[in-house]
Amino acid sequence: MSNNSNLFLSIGKPIKDEYGRTVGKVACFALTPNGKFDGVFIESNDGTFSKKPMDHLKFNGEEVTFASTLKAQANVLCDQIPLIWRKNQALKELAEKRKISPDLYQELRNNFEGVLNQLKEDAKNLTDEAGQEISRCDQEIKTLGYAVVNLELEHEIGQVDDEAYKSAFALLQENLKRANMEKSDILTIKSKLSNVLLGDAPKIEPKTIIDNPVPTKDALKEIEKETIANKETDDPSDEATDEADNEAPELPEPPVVVYVKEVGKAGI
């Protein structure tokens, strides 16, 4: 927009949204007394006129694109809310370090809290608006789906010739593509707003739970090996007890007494 005179080339030209749909045309511009562009008057497709800020449109010669208001507002909120949070936290740290007086801290904190609450309220309202736009896209996608089915039926029974069928089918597919792109963008916007409001919670990976599987033969062999290994690494005191039981001395056999009679003496 360095050369403002080029903007006059867009008067009477169509205005398209970010997905290529024609939403109206440029009627004229509003200028301040010193010649600064203050806004643009748009004639919508339904014949109504409205004045939009200049930052809602992008000009490239004769091409004019209407930027999504929802997307622009969401980007501003997603930047401002974290910034106010960080400033509020920094203010708290300054107070803890006694670099500002308690009275000044409380006053600034109240200001930050008021701004933050208003921004969060705006983000909630914009989230609701995004939800409504998603529902609109869903309805549009559904309607286009019905249109494709009806076109296929009429072409199948010969009511619509091949040339008309190809033209209508291409038109419907192009609109389906646009509607899906818009829905995807709005879903992204809604997710960004939710993350800003709720904060980035750490993701917890779900644990894999395996229901008691039936062991195979190889698994049974492994279990048997582990069982033997566990027995070999049992408590040493248990091994000592077992060894003591196994190595207990056997009882001696009863002694045999032998009486010997000496020769030459009186027999007893």
- Total tally of structural domains: 2
* Global Rg: 44 Å
Number of helices: 5
Number of strands: 6
For the sheet with most strands, the description reads:
6 strands, mixed
The neighbouring-strand order within the major sheet is 4-3-2-1-6-5
Which residues sit in consecutive blocks of at least 5 with pLDDT less than 50? 200-217, 236-268
Structural class: alpha+beta
In short:
With 268 residues, the protein is of the alpha+beta class.
Structural overview:
The chain has 268 residues and is of the alpha+beta class. The chain folds into 2 domains: 4-67, SH3 type barrels (Roll); 71-198. The protein is built from 5 helices and 6 strands. A 6-stranded mixed sheet has the order 4-3-2-1-6-5, with no helix packed on it. α1 runs antiparallel to α2. It starts with 13 loop residues before the first strand and ends in a 22-residue tail after the last helix.
